[in-house]
Structure formats: structure tokens, C-alpha cells
Amino acid sequence: MDLHFVDDVVRPTTRDELPSPLPGDALLAGGTSVMAEPGRDLRRLVDLTTLDWPDLTVADDGLEIAATCTIDRLVHADLPENWHARTLFRWCADSLVASYKIWHTATVGGNVCLALPAGSMTSLCSVLDASLLVWHPDGTDSVVSVADVVVGNQRNSLAPGDLLRSIHVPTAALTAPVAARRVSYAEYGRAGAVVLGRATDGGVVISVSGGTVRPFAIPVPSREPDEVVAACAAVVPEAAWFTDAHGTAEWRRAVVPHLVREVVTELGSAA
Ligand SMILES: Cc1cc2nc3c(=O)[nH]c(=O)nc-3n(C[C@H](O)[C@H](O)[C@H](O)COP(=O)(O)OP(=O)(O)OC[C@H]3O[C@@H](n4cnc5c(N)ncnc54)[C@H](O)[C@@H]3O)c2cc1C
């Protein structure tokens, strides 16, 4: 797309070359959203891909995913066999409306920062207890959770010039048994609601997303389905369920407990 209203494109290769934020800036990762729906005020693009971060770094304490790692790279990465959570990478990618063609360009960080309820990389980070490293324009850093960043439907908490650098997923989450369920009006494509689960010592973490304006990660010290369903119902507020073309709030609120029950049952039999 020819963005004739863009006056400048900055291509930093180091953190020092990142420009001070200006009104009309957009950080550009894969550009599948920036190019498709450029804001009317857009004047300058700051291309993050020229920073050339390694996509994926496997370490003793887990996996570091660069914000600019494409969804395709994550899905097809060669990762340790005992990282059971790998199965969720593909599963979450399949929950996007975006097909595998978009996965080649769309980035994990871009998906999180866009903060769409259908952002399944957000769902992934939520259930896997991911830590997000954010670079601030004054040179300081923060480490936050995905729930700190994705705060509403297409609303993130990043200030102008804040940049998501990477996502760290701890080994304990990667090696734990996981389970996933989604529900959608159509057999393929964008999910109406997504429930992910991860086994913990004697309990589970359930992530509810897709049908809520932001993800909810709910740790429950039990694998008793009724208790987990009740815990999830107590955490997700009424106002968080929303209606769009992919489902009504009522339907989503009604169907998610069934998905939670299935996820907990599967995790119980895996333990
Ligand atoms: C056909 C199609 C289907 C799609 N389906 C879905 C879907 O089902 N669910 C969904 O969530 N999205 C969907 N998208 C939107 C988009 O493709 C994805 O969210 C994608 O992952 C965004 O990544 P990107 O790298 O292209 O982001 P970009 O378009 O480059 O950026 C997206 C936003 O995030 C900001 N940003 C990007 N990287 C960073 C960073 N590191 N730090 C701070 N800010 C950053 C940008 O400034 C911009 O505001 C779809 C898009 C298309 C074209």
C-alpha cells in the first residue's frame, strides 16, 4: 500500500537509533495491521525489523521470543520435545482469522500490541505466564505481564515510544501439560471464545480470552471442574464479555464454562 501521507520512515539498527516519539508515529513490525488500517494521523513509521533481533532464543530458564518474531517462525520452530506447550503455538495461530500467509509477516509482538480480543498470541502469553520486556524512550526498561499491556478491546497500556522488545516464557510453563478449547460460529477461523489451560502443582491456570475484551489468567489451586468453573466465573466480570460478528456476550458467557470444564478434565487425565 502506498501511504502517501507518511513523511518519514526511520530504520534504526540499534536501540540508540530509536527516535524520540512524535505525534503521528507508528512502530512498524510486520505491518499487517499498520498497512491495512493506517490511522489518519499517521506521519512517520519506525521500522522495528531493522533492529534485527534473533527471533527465538532457547535458554535454561525458558524461551525468549523477540517481539518481531513472526507467527510462522514460532509455529515452525524446532524446540525441545519436553516443551508440551509447543502444541499451543500452532493451535493459537489457527485461532486467528489470519491464514498461514499472514503468519509469514505478522509478528507475535504486533499481535499483542494490537490488543484485539482475537489476539491469540495474547492468549498464549496469558496462559504461559509470559514476562514482557518493554523498552521506554528514556532508556529504562519494564518487565510486565500481558494483562498489564493488553488492558481492553484494542487498548494497550503502552505510552508513546514504548516498545515491546521481547516475551519470555518460563521453562516451568513450557514443560507443563496444557489443553485448549475454542468455540466459533464457523468451523475454521476466528474463535468466538478461547480457553487455554496449564497444569500447575495440584491445580491449573486457566486463560479466558477471545470472548472477553482482554485476557484473564486465573490460577486455581484445584483440578475439580466445578471449583475451577466457579473460580473463573468469579474473576471475569460481567462487563468483560462483548458482542461482535463472532458471537454475542450472552453466548460467550454461557459457553465458556463448558470449555473450562473440558480443559480441566483433560488436564486432570494428563497429570
Ligand atoms: C486477513 C487478516 C486477518 C487478521 N486476523 C487477525 C485475528 O484473527 N486476530 C488478531 O489479533 N489480529 C488479526 N489480524 C491483525 C494482524 O495481522 C495481527 O494482529 C498481527 O499479529 C499484527 O502483527 P504485525 O507484526 O503485522 O503488527 P503491525 O501491523 O506492524 O503493528 C500492529 C500494532 O502494534 C504496534 N506494534 C507492533 N510491534 C510493536 C512493538 N514491538 N512494540 C510496540 N508496539 C508495536 C504497531 O505500532 C501497531 O499499532 C489480521 C490481519 C489480517 C490482514
Short description:
This protein has nine helices and 14 strands. By secondary structure, it is α+β, with helices and mostly antiparallel strands. The longest helix has 22 residues.
Please describe what this structure looks like.
The protein has 9 helices and 14 strands. It is α+β, with helices and mostly antiparallel strands and 271 residues long. The chain has 3 domains: 8-47, no CATH class; 55-172, 2-Layer Sandwich (Uridine Diphospho-n-acetylenolpyruvylglucosamine Reductase, domain 3); 177-270, Enolase-like, domain 1. Strand 12 (193-200) and strand 13 (203-209) form a beta hairpin. Flavin-adenine dinucleotide binds at residues 26-34, 36, 48, 67, 96-98, 102, 106-107, 109-111, 113-114, 116, 118-119, 158, 163-164, 190.
Overall average residue pLDDT? 95
Q: Count all strands and give the number.
A: 14
Portion of residues in beta strands equals 25-35%
Question: Which structural class fits the helix and strand makeup?
Answer: alpha+beta
State the separation between the terminal residues, measured CA to CA: 50 Å
* Element-by-element helix/strand order: EEEEEHHHHHEEHEEEHEEEEHH
The gross shape turns out to be globular
CATH architecture of the largest domain: 2-Layer Sandwich
Note the topology.
Blueprint: E1 8-10, E2 25-28, E3 44-47, E4 56-59, E5 62-66, H1 71-75, H2 86-94, H3 100-103, H4 108-114, H5 120-127, E6 131-135, E7 141-144, H6 146-149, E8 150-152, E9 155-156, E10 163-170, H7 171-175, E11 178-183, E12 193-200, E13 203-209, E14 216-220, H8 225-235, H9 249-270
Parallel strand pairs: 1-3, 2-3
Antiparallel strand pairs: 4-5, 5-10, 6-7, 6-10, 8-9, 11-12, 12-13, 13-14
Helix pairs in contact: 2-5, 8-9
The structure holds flavin-adenine dinucleotide (FAD).
